[in-house]
Structure formats: structure tokens, C-alpha cells
Protein: Peptidase S24/S26A/S26B/S26C domain-containing protein
Organism: Lacticaseibacillus sharpeae JCM 1186 = DSM 20505
Amino acid sequence: MGKYAGDDDLFITNINGESMNRVIPNHSLVIIKHVDSFQDLYDGEIVIFSEDDESYSVKRFYNDKHMQIINFAPDSSDSSYHPINFRYEDMSDVKIIGRVVSALIEF
């Protein structure tokens, strides 16, 4: 695990879906590091988040500070996936679980 060895803020989950298939194929395992808020993230990082505490999405994170919008963008070869945007004032409804720090991909 390199620099994350022994880190207690990590967990592993399975990816189901094609919205990030250019970088994380369907059914891959990803290692997630917990973050406290979107202020802890950098543009382009891959994150897992929830809008409803029941379903989770994995997307690239972008923070447009000028427009005060958070953008969660797919990285997919399937054009049916579209970015999900939230205004800063609506981010209280969104729970960012963490950033993807590694992916385990089977060939």
C-alpha cells in the first residue's frame, strides 16, 4: 500500500458500473481514504459520494470556486453518463465518503 500502509482511514469497495470505465473498469476493487469535506479535495481526484445515503457514485471531483459549483464528472467511454453539479449551498445534501487512492483491476 506504499504511503497508505497502516492508515486507519482506508476501506475497500467494489465498483459497479461503467461511469468511470476509462480509469476504473466495472467490478474493480478500489481503496478509499476518508475525507472530512470537499475542501480536502483537489480538482481531478476520483471520489466516492452519496446524495441520499443509500446509493453511491464514483466520479472525478472539480471545484469551480468562481461559480461556487462542485462538479462530479464521469470518465467513461459511454456518452450516456453526464456530470452531476451541486451549488455550494446544496452540498449539505451530499456526503463525500473519500478519495480513491488505489484500484485493484483484474485482467
Remarks:
- The chain has one domain: 2-104.
- Residues 2-104 form a domain with the Umud Fragment, subunit A fold (CATH 2.10.109.10).
- The chain has a mean pLDDT of 92.
